[in-house]
Each structure stands twice: as C-alpha cells, then as structure tokens.
C-alpha cells in the first residue's frame, strides 16, 4: 500500500513558492490547518492567492497571513470577522473575489473530481454573473462557474492513516471534504495518524486517492470564534 506519510509540516510544504494559489480548508476557525498556516508564515511566501470559506480573524488562522501582507488575492464567501481584511480591501491593498458559499464549495468539488465547470443558479442577474456565460435549463437561468485551479490544497482532519484516508469531526467536515484533492497537491494535517488499514472503511470521509501528503500536527489551539452561552438562571 502507498505510504503518504511525511515526517513533519516542513517536509509537507516542500515546493511551496511565492505567487501560488492555495485552497485552505476550515469553517470559521473550525477545522483550519493550524500547523500549515504557521509554516506558511514562517516560510514568508508572498503574493498568495488564497481560496477559503473565510479569512480567519485578526490574530488567528488566515489572519496571520493577512497581517504579514502575504496574501495578494482572497477568494472567499464570508469575511466579516476580520478588521484587517476590511482595511486592506478598502485601501486597495488586497484583491477580493466574493463568492456564494455553495458555489465556492461546488467549484472546489468540481476540481476535486476533475470537472472543468459547474452550472449554478446562484448569482444570476447580479454582479456575480457579469462576464460569465449563462444558459437556461428547464425554464431557469444558470451561470457557468469554472472549477478552481490551485497549486496546493491544505486540509485538516481529526484522524487519518498513512495511506491518506481521512475522517473529520463535526463542522470541520464542511469545506475540508470538498477541498481535499482540489489542488494539484493536497496536504492533510491530522490530529491522530494511524497505520494504513486501521480505520474503519465505513467511517472514512475522504479516501486516500485525494491526498498526496499527510502528517500528524501538534499543539492545536482550536480557538472558538464566537463564544455564546446561555445566561445563568
């Protein structure tokens, strides 16, 4: 069986260069590849195009890369929790492409499965559809959206094996699952890495065919983005 395990995050990110396009998993601060983001900061790669559901917060997640001015273009569906993102966007320092959340997920899934594009009704008749091909199907108008092209996909899973099979936990599955395999090279960091064959095949969310490199991460902070509790009675 193919062994896709690498020793650490430094080896996992070999080949990363300035000007590349990265797809980054996670939903809010849930399920983000913390070790990979920290390594991108350490490497100092710049002029990145980053495709992710959101842009992190000011002092965590992709916010680290934004603060260092490493991201040139951000493609995302929600960016409302990051003041530095807002500042860079309004000042013209950061190029921004806002995408409906479902469209973003499906453009990743299309890339994952080798489809060049998808048809979606989302955005028809708005600025989202400007300059794009539209077509009617069964009396309803659709917009042609091209699949994403990325150099790397970075995802984070709860558990994985050395063959690259992944299991996610809870909300962390949202965008990590369709993003695995959407780039030319997919790197997965996991909280627990086990030998190939130890995972229950019926529980696997992403098969190893979509993963090129896998390593066990460490020192996860797992911040809560918005802590909401019920008042004491």
From TrEMBL:
Pfam families cross-referenced by the UniProt entry: CoA_trans
Protein family membership: Belongs to the 3-oxoacid CoA-transferase subunit A family.
GO molecular function (one): succinyl-CoA:3-oxo-acid CoA-transferase activity
Keyword DNA damage: no
Stated name of the protein: 3-oxoacid CoA-transferase subunit A
The keyword Transcription regulation is annotated on this UniProt entry: no
Alphabetically ordered keywords of this record: Transferase
SMART domains linked to this entry: CoA_trans
Top-level taxon of the source organism: Bacteria
EC id: 2.8.3.5
């Amino acid at each position: 069986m193919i062994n896709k395990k690498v020793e650490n995050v430094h080896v996992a990110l070999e080949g990363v260069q300035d000007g590349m396009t990265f797809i980054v998993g996670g939903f809010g601060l849930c399920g983000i590849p913390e070790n990979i983001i920290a390594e991108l900061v350490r490497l100092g790669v710049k002029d990145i195009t980053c495709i992710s559901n959101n842009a992190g917060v000011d002092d965590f997640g992709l916010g680290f890369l934004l603060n260092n001015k490493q991201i040139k273009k951000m493609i995302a569906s929600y960016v409302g929790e990051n003041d530095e993102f807002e500042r860079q966007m309004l000042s013209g320092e950061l190029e921004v492409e806002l995408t409906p959340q479902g469209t973003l997920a499906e453009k990743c899934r299309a890339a994952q499965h080798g489809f060049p594009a998808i048809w979606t009704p989302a955005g028809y008749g708005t600025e989202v559809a400007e300059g794009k091909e539209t077509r009617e199907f069964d009396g309803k108008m659709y917009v042609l959206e091209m699949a994403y092209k990325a150099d790397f996909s970075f995802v984070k899973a709860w558990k994985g094996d050395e063959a690259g099979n992944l299991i996610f936990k809870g909300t962390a599955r949202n965008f990590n699952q369709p993003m695995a395999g959407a780039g030319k090279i997919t790197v997965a960091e996991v909280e627990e890495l086990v030998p190939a064959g130890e995972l229950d095949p019926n529980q696997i969310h992403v098969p190893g065919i979509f993963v090129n490199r896998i390593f066990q991460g460490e020192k996860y902070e797992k911040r809560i983005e918005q802590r909401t509790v019920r008042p004491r009675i």
